[in-house]
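Example 3.2
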Amino acid sequence: MRRGDPGGGGAGPRGIVGSDEAAQHALGLAWAYLNRRDRTVSEVRSQLERKAVPGAVIEQCLQALVEQCLLDDVRYAQLFVADKRELEQWGSERIRRGLLARGVDRELVDAALAPVTTDDAEAEGSEDTELARAVELLRRRYPAPPVDRREHERALGLLLRKGYESELALDALASYARGA
């Protein structure tokens, strides 16, 4: 198992939750759900609710998983942002929608999407970085800058579907056309 099962076999979770059978069952369900991939607290809560686990037991289980660092929305948001930017070439707006749909708090989403530094000059550079990612995506998809209206609209649609803001997408198209 990737994580979660501290004792192996059927020994059950030691020291996390008392010997209450419902809590043990809830932890088992949560671990099975977490073994597939990282999840948010909200996703695990919803899964346990679908499995008809009582609310008090769900909260006890979630608290134990957070204390054991098996659930961490901050880590989840940071990894999600990095993966979607690098692997899927998503823009900030699509990433934001994806995290909010998974139940991550708006403040955590904003923090994960914020530039790493607090220096104003470098913070402005984060938009340039997103612009550079959008231009790079256009270069990969379109070997030559779009020349006619149809190609231009297709390229713009690509950037909008990837979650880039419309103004940034237009700037990326203009920059690509200039050869920057």
